[in-house]
Amino acid sequence: MAAAAAAAAAAADSCGGYDHLLKLLLIGDSGVGKSSLLLRFTEDKYDEQQLSTIGVDFRIRYMTIEGTRLKLAIWDTAGQERFKTLTASYYRGAQGIILV
């Protein structure tokens, strides 16, 4: 079932199958669960051995809400202080922030 959903999402993306693209950021301290939340929301998985994000990571999720097709680009930022200057540049152009 997951493979079929991934194939449908890839097909929708290749033909411009969405009405709006939204860039969302997951921000918060290191170790609070940003990466786990992202993995659960985009792939319905949970990994007890989730590694810390280095820099930034992102995943895509397609949704339809009230007939509007959305492509969510969800960016997972590193929580460590040493990456703060790097991740701040990814805030530009974001339509939403999820504080974890």
Q: What would your notes on this structure say?
A:
With 100 residues, this protein is α/β, with parallel strands linked by helices. The chain has one domain (18-99): P-loop containing nucleotide triphosphate hydrolases (Rossmann fold), CATH 3.40.50. The protein has helices spanning 2-14, 34-43, 84-88, and strands at residues 20-27, 56-65, 68-77, 96-99. A hairpin with a 2-residue loop joins strand 2 and strand 3. The longest helix is centred in the first third of the chain and has 13 residues, at 2-14. InterPro entries: P-loop_NTPase (IPR027417), Small_GTP-bd (IPR005225), Small_GTPase (IPR001806), Small_GTPase_Rab (IPR050305). Pfam families: Ras. Keywords: GTP-binding, Lipoprotein, Nucleotide-binding. Belongs to the small GTPase superfamily. Rab family. It comes from Eimeria brunetti.
User: How many beta strands in the DSSP annotation?
Assistant: 4
CATH architectural category: 3-Layer(aba) Sandwich
**In percent, how much strand structure appears in the residues?**
25-35%
Count of individual domains:
1
CATH class: Alpha Beta
pLDDT under 50 segments (min length 5)?
A: none
Strand order within the widest sheet?
Answer: 2-3-1-4
Helix content: 25-40%
| Gyration radius from CA atoms, angstroms | 14 Å
Largest sheet: 4 strands, mixed
Keywords: GTP-binding, Lipoprotein, Nucleotide-binding
InterPro entries: P-loop_NTPase (IPR027417), Small_GTP-bd (IPR005225), Small_GTPase (IPR001806), Small_GTPase_Rab (IPR050305)
GO molecular function: GTP binding; GTPase activity
Family: Belongs to the small GTPase superfamily. Rab family.
